[in-house]
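Structure (tokenized):
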């Protein structure tokens, strides 16, 4: 349940230096994907690395993956005779969207009731946003789990009265068939209730995805991905991406790489 002394040292060094993840991994000869996988569960909630004390509370050896109901992910969670590669998490925002769309179309009282119950779960999350992992876990155990159990019982009751092919039935079934994945977050203090933080981060790329279809070649695609990662890292560090790019391009011909660091750029006020 604890992280190694090596990782504690690396994280503490990263926090003090204020470097981006990409540069930090490069300077410490770490595999970027491995480092991110070990810390993603915490960063999704806090948008920052944990303190050295809090990181000990995160079960680093367990990997969770939050996905929708796309069948291509299933092999990651179910493996005959072998330990699954990941533990499944379901995004409550995806489930909420189905009831929201249903209510928009038909003004369904059942959909409104579902939205109200889900809103209660988000209100609890708002209460625990600034809490420590242990405090949030206790809050969820006391308040979220009873609400989830009541929601499940209500969904099962409604399922018996709905036409199987109706939109309402499909929304209910979407939650019930993946119920363990939906409620898993409430048994912990570090897992997120939804994937909104990640989705909001990639939305600009998703909105412009038609532009990325014609990058010219696989090598060009990798270059685009690298540039997007750098711009994203600038945003995470509170640096204006346009200003950072302009100044970096001006400095590259004459400055040594060691002087071109995030610390040399002013942060945006929050």
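Design, position by position:
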């Amino acid at each position: 349940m604890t992280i190694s002394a090596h990782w504690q040292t690396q994280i503490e060094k990263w926090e003090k230096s204020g470097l981006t993840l990409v540069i930090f991994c490069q300077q410490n000869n770490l595999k970027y994907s491995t480092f991110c996988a070990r810390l993603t569960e915490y960063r999704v909630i806090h948008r920052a690395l944990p303190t050295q004390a809090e990181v000990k509370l995160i079960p680093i050896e367990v990997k969770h993956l939050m996905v929708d109901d796309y069948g291509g992910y299933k092999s990651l969670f179910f493996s005959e005779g072998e330990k699954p590669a990941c533990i499944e998490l379901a995004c409550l925002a995806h489930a909420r969207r189905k009831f929201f769309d249903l209510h928009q179309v038909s003004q369904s009282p059942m959909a409104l009731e579902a939205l109200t119950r889900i809103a209660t779960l988000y209100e609890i999350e708002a209460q625990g946003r600034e809490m420590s992992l242990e405090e949030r876990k206790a809050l969820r155990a006391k308040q979220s789990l009873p609400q989830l159990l009541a929601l499940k019982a209500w969904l099962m009751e409604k399922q018996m009265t709905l036409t199987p092919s109706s939109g309402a039935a499909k929304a209910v079934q979407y939650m019930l068939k993946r119920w363990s994945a939906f409620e898993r977050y409430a048994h912990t203090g570090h897992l997120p209730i939804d994937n909104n933080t990640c989705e909001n981060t990639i939305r600009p790329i998703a909105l412009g995805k038609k532009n990325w279809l014609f990058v010219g070649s696989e090598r060009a695609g990798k270059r685009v991905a690298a540039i997007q990662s750098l711009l994203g890292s600038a945003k995470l560090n509170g640096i204006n991406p346009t200003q950072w790019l302009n100044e970096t391009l001006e400095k590259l011909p004459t400055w040594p790489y060691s002087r071109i660091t995030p610390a040399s750029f002013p942060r945006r006020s929050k």
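Reviewer-requested clarification: Residues 29 and 53 are 24 Å apart (CA to CA). The radius of gyration is 22 Å.
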